[in-house]
Every structure is written in C-alpha cells, then in structure tokens.
Amino acid sequence: MPRQPFAISSLRSRMSLAVATLLVTAPIVGMVGTTVQADTIDNDSLTVPQEAPCSQRYPLVANPAPAMGSETPKDAVRQGFGTKRDWGTEENVEILSPSATGLNEPGLRVHYPEGTSSPGDTEKGGAGFYAEEAALMSSDRGCLQYRVRFESGFDFVKGGKLPGLYGGEAPSGGTNANGENGFSMRFMWREDGQGELYEYVVNQDDKYGSSVGRGLWHFPPGRWVTVEQEVILNTPGQEDGVARVWIDGQPILEQNGIVYRTTDDVRIDGLMFSTFFGGDGSEWRTPRDQSVDFAAFRFYAPTQ
C-alpha cells in the first residue's frame, strides 16, 4: 500500500527534541477543534510518551462496530455499540460497508449539514452516543483506539468535536467536572486541521474545558488517521492522573497531574462518541454539507 507523509508539528523546548520537526511516514490505513472558550494548556507543560502505544501494552477487551444488516443506521449503532443513549444517529449517520472503509470492517459516516454546529446552537449536525465497556470500568486505566477520515477538501472552519473516553456523567457543554460527576476526554479538530485533546476534568481553569496539545498534530483530509488515547485515573485526593496520545502510532503528548475524580466511584465507563462543528455561533458553522468517517474502534485495558 502506498505511503503518505504525515507531519507532526514542531514541539516546544520541553517536548522531546527527537520529535521536534519530526516527519514520519505511515500507511493510509495507519499502523504504527455551547461556545468553546477553552483554557489552553501551554504545550511546554507537556511531555512526549516514552511508553509504547497503549494498544501494544494492554490486551484487547472489545472491538465494537456498527451492526451490518440492521434496518436503520440508528439500529446499527444501538446494536453494535450496545447503547440506547444516542442522538443524530437517525438523521446524520450512514453505515459504511467493509469495502467502503477499506479496512475489512464496517464504519460510520457522520454528516454535518450546511449551517449546523453544536446541538445547542442550531438544528443538530453530527451525532453522538455513549458505549460502555465493563472491562474498562474494572480498571483505573484504559485505552481507546479508532480511525477517523475527513473527506477530501474538508473545511475545518474553527473546529469541532471528536470521540474520546469518558467516566460518570461525562460532563461537557459548560458543566464543570466536580470530582464526583465524572470526566470527558474528547478530541477536537481546529482550524486548518489542527488536533487537540479537549478535556473536562476537575483541575481545569475554564468552564468550557481545557484545550491540550493544540497543533501538535494535524488531520490530513482524504485518508485514515489512527487516534489512540490512554487515560490513567488519579488516586482520589492526589493529582496523579495521566493522559497520553498517539497519532498513527507516533507519540504526541503526555499530560500529568490530572484530577479526574475525588472518589473511587468515578471509573472509566467507555466511549463518548461526540462529533459536531462548534462551539456556538455562526463563525463555527459548517458552510456546506460535509462528512467524516469513523471505524475500527478498539478498547484495551489491563485484565485481572
């Protein structure tokens, strides 16, 4: 399969010099950005993961996928991901066959109709659902991997949401994480395809979440990108939580000192599939009908 260049943005002085101005190559399939007013965490406070990607260190515990042969896309999502908590799956989701993804497994194509942004701003564009996984709930650490493909010529505007891990009530949309109601660790795309980790955790400084690592990687339209996220919960009463990100198998960022919780009742529950343009307001809205594909969801976690 032909290889295409995937440029990781230059990292700042406290990021590893070995990664600064790094240019790596990865197969097309992959091996190896309510108003958003997020507090942006200085990239100088981040490091580069020294560990191998979490998908290589933990056993695979689940690989949910849309159920082929279902009557509707909504049914395919509910059956394949074991959820009844969803929105936009009837209007804005299309099921892709294994041949359409080129990954030998089915996927989701999410549509963002012209003029839409976040669900609280306009008519709903995009889609969302929650998929729980028991193996994640039984551990203080978990790993999510999936693949995302922006359509060729995608207009990123100011940004939009992408899936990530969550716990508890998955606070978002300006609901503060208070230590007892859980957390959310979604991704975002930003202008020109910049990537970032977008988090609601206890020790964030802004009501609307924290923007972490913005611009340390980009999403090139027209090809699959492998996104991988590791969450290590903090010990209640301590600031020792960790988040790590790999893109196409390459180490991107490690953030330490995170407070996800103040009680052991908060666990890693599973996947918060959440995708839409925005932010609120006309400056966030997509100027035309657009779509993004998602596939190859994997959960990894330590087993007892």
TrEMBL record:
Source species, domain of life: Bacteria
Chain residue ranges for the region called Disordered: 99-124
InterPro entries for this protein: Polysacc_lyase_14
One Pfam family linked to the record: Polysacc_lyase_14
Domain Polysaccharide lyase: 105-297
PANTHER family per the UniProt record, alphabetical: DISAGGREGATASE RELATED REPEAT PROTEIN, PTHR40124
Protein name (database record): Polysaccharide lyase 14 domain-containing protein
UniProt source species: Litchfieldella qijiaojingensis
